[in-house]
Amino acid sequence: MKQEEVQKCCAANPTTADSKRSVVCETYQEPVQFEYLGLLHSETCMMKRAGQKVVAGTEAPGTSQTSKRQKTSLYGSGLEESNPCASMDWGSLPHHVILRVFQFLTLVDRARASSVCRRWNEVFHIPDLWRRFEFELSQPATSYLKSTHPDLIQQIIKRHADHLQYVSFKVDSSTESAEAACDILSQLVNCSIKTLGLISTAKPSFMNVSKAHFASALTVVFVNSKSLSSIKIDDTPLDDPSLKVLVANNSDTLKLLKMSSCPHVSPAGILCVADQCHGLKELALNYYILSDELLLALSSEKHVDLEHLRIDVVSENPGQVQFHTIKKQSWDALVKHSPKVNIVMYFFLYEDEFDAFFREETPVTHLYFGRAVSKAMLGRIGMNCPRLIELVVCANGLQPLDDELIQIAERCKNLTAMGLGECEVTCRGFIEFVKMCGGRLTQLSIMEEVLIPDSDYSLDRLHLEVSKHLGRMWFPDMMPTW
Q1: Strands 195-200 and 366-372, bridge-based pairing
Q2: Which of 52, 160, 212, 292 could disulfide-link 330, Cβ–Cβ 3.0 to 4.6 Å?
Q3: Where does the pLDDT of residue 84 fall: very low under 50, low under 70, confident under 90, or very high at 90 and above?
Q4: CA 94/CA 208 separation, integer angstroms
């Protein structure tokens, strides 16, 4: 039967699943030993403990051929004559058809399906199914997250390490989970990983791992992969020597590097990456390692156009961090070399720590203020950020921001998104801002308590007036949407 006919039969007869199970059992007479049965047994035990009904999908090895045929007739009684799918050999489907089905299944479901017959088990181990994998590591006593079964991890290392290409590790807040991730990395000696991500779901647990252990694990991947194109390792004890190993083995392929909140990396360490990885298109880092030299290196003739630069400006202890200033000439060189670059800055500072920023024209495109920002700072943004596309202000004082918003609307001609949280704006001032921006404001998220009714506009009239200038229906938000 052709593949198209099989698909039509299955679509027209959703009751085929039971018949399929019985035909498969009839086709394969002798018991077959499959891997990952320990994983399936563990999943079954978990279901039993949770009080779920577990339906057996395989026959006991001693079951006779006659009883199997009887069960087949019971399941499929009256179906074979009316349903051509009931008599087909599901175990003989082409590999590429089974592979396509497996790609839509979760890992546990694929493991269950692999125990049906030898052919399906062979497909289970096809490299295409193992190119992308996320290891989930958590401690059951302290976390609600699911965890990848240890038996499966060992089988992956044993049989599929050289197939892994897109790998990520999601760990909970425990140091044990982060150390387990490092142990797995240390065993990927035959890997050819292209993308690597280390994700802490709660507090940055990788920071509790010893720097030597973490560096040793990364070195294994950096040295053996030689084709890394994307690395996301925020909030980790990454250091300069590890970056040098990365560059020495992957300088021709690296295109994305996200390493915010890596306190052991120095400006010299990230400069080494920019000097030698000329294909780098996306970079995320903390402001303290941003330098004029780095921007100039990213602007060299050998370097491709930078597409995305994210800078986190963070202060945990007010008054204890002295922020340096980046020269206007360095910013200008970057924009001249990469005119379409998005420069995103996240600020988590206190009001008296903004003195070093936006004194001169700065080509930032996206600005996010997670803490209070002063009126004077917003005024400087209106004066010196002509490339601004998006602005989000989570908090401000109790003084209306009418003049600052109007100045931003007047000078930031590319502004298309605005979000305001704990601020104050008069209804008249807000309408004037929207009127100046017009339909280019594709995203406008303003908390209702931000808007102060005045003698000209009430909140009811405000949404009608704003909707008219935007060209679409608009209402203020009841809660932040950014």
Answers
A1: unpaired
A2: 292
A3: low
A4: 49
User: What's the first-to-final CA gap in the chain, in angstroms?
Assistant: 53
Tell me which H or E stretch contains 123: helix 118-124
Give the start-end residues of each E strand in 162-306: 166-171, 195-200, 230-232, 256-258, 282-286
Rounded Cα–Cα distance for residues 356 and 439 (Å): 34
**How far is it between the farthest Cα atoms of the chain?**
90
Residues 309 and 255: their CA atoms lie apart, in Å, by 12
Q: What are phi and psi of 469, to 5 degrees?
A: -75, -30
Query: Please, what is the Cα angle at 27 between 24 and 31, to 5 degrees?
Result: 90
- Phi and psi at residue 266, in whole multiples of 5°? -105, 165
Q: What is the per-residue burial (b if ≥16 Cβ within 10 Å, else e) of 19-34?
A: bbbbbbbbeeeeeeeb
E strand or H helix that includes residue 380: helix 375-384
3-state SS assignment for residue 422: strand
219, 243 in Cβ contact below 8 A?
no
How large is the C-alpha radius of gyration of the chain? 29
Q: Is the pTM of this model over 0.85?
A: no
CB within 8 Å of 265: residues ≥ 6 apart:
238, 239, 240, 243, 259, 285, 289
DSSP state of 156: I
Other C-beta atoms within 10 Å of 87: how many? Answer: 13
Q: Tokens at residue 238, please?
A: 């990454």
Task: Quote the tokens at residue 163.
Answer: 């197939």
Give the helix/strand (H/E) hosting 97: helix 95-102
Contact 454, 427 (CB under 8 A): yes
**Token couple for 407:** 């100045």
19 neighbors 25 (Cβ within 8 angstroms):
no
d(Cα 375, Cα 396) in Å, to the nearest integer?
Answer: 8
Dump the DSSP string for 42-59.
Answer: HHHHHHHHTT------S-
Q: Which residues on neighbouring strands pair with residue 477, listed in sequence order?
A: 447
> How many CA atoms within 13 Å lie on the side-chain side of 139?
13
Lookup result for tokens 């935007």? 470
- The string of pLDDT tens digits covering residues 364-384 is 999 999 888 888 999 999 999
More reliable by pLDDT, 58 or 352 = 352
Exposed/middle/buried for residue 237 (C-beta within 10 Å: 0-12, 13-18, 19+): buried
> What's the Cα-to-Cα distance from 438 to each of 25, 53, 151, 425, rounded to whole Å?
67, 59, 59, 18
Instruction: Return the closest-CA partner of residue 298 out of 315, 278, 316, 284.
Output: 278
How far is the C-alpha of 405 from the C-alpha of 378, rounded, in Å? 8
Q: How many Å apart are CA 354 and CA 77, to the nearest integer?
A: 78
Q: Which stretch of 119-133, 212-226, 407-421 has the lowest confidence by average pLDDT?
A: 119-133
The values of phi and psi at residue 272, to 5°, are: -60, -40
